[in-house]
Amino acid sequence: MQAPPPAPRTEREKMLAGELYYGFDPDLTAERQRAQRRLAEYNATPADDQPLRTKLLRALLGHAGEGLVIQPTFTCDYGTNIHIGRNGFINYHCVFLDCAAIEIGDNLQMAPMAQLYTALHPLDPDERRSGLESARPIRIGHDVWIGGGAIILPGVTIGDGAVIGAGSVVSRDVPPRTVVAGNPARAIRALG
Which of 3, 16, 147, 182 has the fewest CB atoms lying closer than 10 Å? Predict the structure, then answer.
């Protein structure tokens, strides 16, 4: 006797597996709407009410380490796919498109308007028009500094102690303790 066929995968399961998925799936849309309500509350909470801000971040994110500070306005798709370690500081107007995991180590320093994009769209216009998309995770190590307006593209891993120059577009992995800058970002020097 043969085993029954596996149950069809949900669009969320496909999304997190890096497969093509339908971005306007009703369940995914509901998750994004839930995140937007939580973000609106978080972004409207006064900076001097740190206990409430921490509580709201922990309800939004997959993991929010001790001492994490995120300045408003913070924007993300789902929140639940974002995992940030201890003592991170994320400055004003940062955007995290977390259709795949965004994993960040301890002691992150992120300047204003930095953007982390896990989402990918098909190159073929017919496929794009269908609403299909995919995503690849972003991994950022410990003690990383990301300059203002930097953009980190899908699938990138940034090693411990790296520095990303302001305005850089990072499309490739960055080794530990390396300074990169430019568009596309290139290694400028290694840190001792």
Answer: 3
Looking at residue 192, its amino acid is G
What angle is formed at CA 117 by the lines to CA 47 and CA 153, rounded to 5 degrees?
Answer: 125
Tokens representing 151 are: 């953009």
Helices (H) and strands (E) in the chain — how many of each? Answer: 4, 20
Cβ contacts of 87 within 8 Å, gap of 6 or more: 65, 66, 67, 68, 106, 107
132-135 and 21-22 strand pairing: antiparallel
- pLDDT at residue 3 is higher than 90: no
Please give the positions annotated as active site. 121
Judge whether 68 and 84 are in contact, CB under 8 Å: yes
46-103 per-position pLDDT tens digit: 988 989 999 999 999 999 999 999 999 999 999 999 999 999 999 999 999 999 999 9
Residues 168, 188: Cα–Cα separation, whole Å: 12
The Cα 100–Cα 113 span in angstroms is 20
Residue 40 identity: A
Burial of 33 (0-12, 13-18, 19+ CB in 10 A): exposed
Sign of CA pseudo-dihedral 182, 186, 189, 192: positive
